[in-house]
Sequence to fold (788 residues):
Amino acid sequence: MPPVAQQIADWFGTVLRGPLAGLRGADPVLGLALMVLAALVVASVLNRRLRLPRLLGYLLVGALASPALLDVLERTDLDPWKPLIDLAVAALVFELGTRLRPRWLLDNPWLAASSVLEAAAAAGAVGFALMMLGAPAASAAAAAALAAATSPVITMAAFLEARPRGQVAERLLMLSAINSVLAVLAIKLWPVLAQGVSAADSLALLASAGAVIFGSVLVGLAAGMLLDRLALLHEDLATMPVLQLALVILAALLAIAWGLSPFMTLLVAGMTARSRMRHRLTVEPYLGSAGAALTVMLFVSFGVLSTITDLFNLLPWVLAIIVARLLGKGLAIFATARPSGLSWRQAGALTLALQPMSSLSVLLVADSFGWRTQLPGADGNVIQALLVATTLMQLTGPLWTLLPLKYVVREADETQN
Amino acid sequence: MALEAFTPSQPLTLGVELELQLVDTHDFDLTPRAEDLLRELAGHSGAWDVKPEITRSMIEIGTSIQRSFVPLRDELHDLRTQMSRAARKLNIAISGGGTHAYQHWSAQRIFPTERFHYISELYGYLAKQFTVFGQHVHVGVPNGDEALWLLHALSRYVPHFIALAASSPYVQGEDTGFQSARLNSVFAFPLSGRAPFVLTWEGFGQFFDKMTSTGVVQSMKDFYWDIRPKPEFGTIELRVCDTPLQVDKAAALACYLQSLCRHLREERPFEPAEDDYLVYTFNRFQACRFGLDGEIVDPKTKQRSKLRDDIIRTLARIEPHALDLQALDACNLIRESLTEGNDAAWLRALRRPQVPMPAVVEAAAARWMRS
Fold:
């Protein structure tokens, strides 16, 4: 680490960390609860004074408390909260599913092409850039696969915060869902490339990936249909969020228990519920106030999971990931903009809004918040560079999403957050 | 600014304008996508025209000059097909209907043009409340004097068009009890209602000069009358119809008006008089409130009759003219709608206790787009 950076880090250590040392010994459950309270206050101040998104406030408080800065909470402190945090993610993913209209991809084949191309171009650009900088091919491929995804959680939460209406906002939801699904599949297939498995094993892995897709879709369909049937028995609108939360938990647990993709399962469940129930399906933002509270906790946790370890040593790789991803997504979006019905300005806004990165594809299949366990054999430096890039693009995620929607295409009310 | 000269046009030619709703395919509320749709339709292959309206959730289309029912209907079909394709590509839906059932006026955004901003500044919230959707029909006339004669002669029939086209029972999520609640929004404008009773273009020019000298109006566009002359097109423009839920109905209404105009021009069954307007507002209210079941008073005979019966009698009188104008199919469509009910009745029939309002808007959009 350069001397100036080291001095800053030391200053943090002596001036700020010292007085907070007592907090580190506190009960982690109490610790996170306090963090959530602090996040609400900070988010409110940022929102009123600087008109910054509330989500940014939650993330910043989490990041300040993380081991990377004030070290109030350890990452392992989040493990007791993981079921609740997963539930917050699951609620947002289900809600995202209810907003998607797959028929749009048939009505606009260029949109379908655009969604696959932008994911592929981002992955290709990141993989190529990392290999040019000397990263091992297999590890670069893993990073590329993860970098293809836009954080559907940040996208959906930002959407709920600003309520944008327009072409860019709708494409953002659709594209972030599709590129995340593609990232999940790519990670499932990654061992084929990484471990040089035999032809027979490759076939087995392909079959396993197929089973994950098929199984996830099946469980998602069943959950959506079950919600439809149960909703017919409970016409009281007040019970709808409870039913939805229960179904979301059930579907997510089944998916995890059977080794499926909870992300795909919940996305399909949301789409199925919307398709079958049509206007009978009323989805409260965050599936109601309980979901909203969990979402604050989720974003604080995202902040706590921040890592900038080795930022300076890995800076070229980190920058390569961020810049290559931006260029890859931008190239594909601009190439398909006009035939798919976007103006150049909208294409620019969509490119920027797609930048928040996602740890979701890994997190939802993990037992804990450790990434490395999900990618055995991957080069440690590449994964760390990816984690740092994800941290940066996650912490700034609400700005990437909301600023273009508000100020470039004016799809969200500038006075609102 | 002096009134422009009346451009002569071929009598009884037709042009139809429709203001349409752009709705979101998720919640079926109005969605501000006019610019996207206009860009997508910029290269359309028809002779028709498409342009923005005052708020960004509206769009207006205009047909080319037409002479009879079938070509007019065919052009509207082509327009609907191309617009629907573009809308699906953009994940939006297009709907007819005089009002959106539950949009909130304050959520609407003014389309960014100089005139719309001027209207917005002048009328304040009324401009956003003007997010209502009408059908305007232009009928060609050879000169200004005849335009004004026909305009006032038609005033007796204005309730016919209101009742036949009525498709706006819901406003801001509530059933208003009206068949055409849209016209209540139009009445809020200070220059709405009926044109002054002047029968010569020269006399109308004097009225226009007086109005412009007050600074209240700048051009003919500032008059929101039920029927107004359009000197630059050489037409009179009937503006009381809600946008129907189907384009066939829009074409039929236009050709019913065309046949009626021919009947009035050629047979001169009565001479318009200032006193015709004594019952005008009452009749118009009856049509807006009760639709085809409303009761109107004949301004000449002072007889009361059901609107439905009056339309049946009028259809019988204009039949020879409809035959000559190849508009019999249009008149048959109008006749059928007298028994089937207007679009307001169709929308109300959808709204049962378990059916939420977005489902009603979705059904209306599907009816317009034929999906």
About this structure: Residues 145 and 202 of chain B are 8 Å apart (CA to CA).
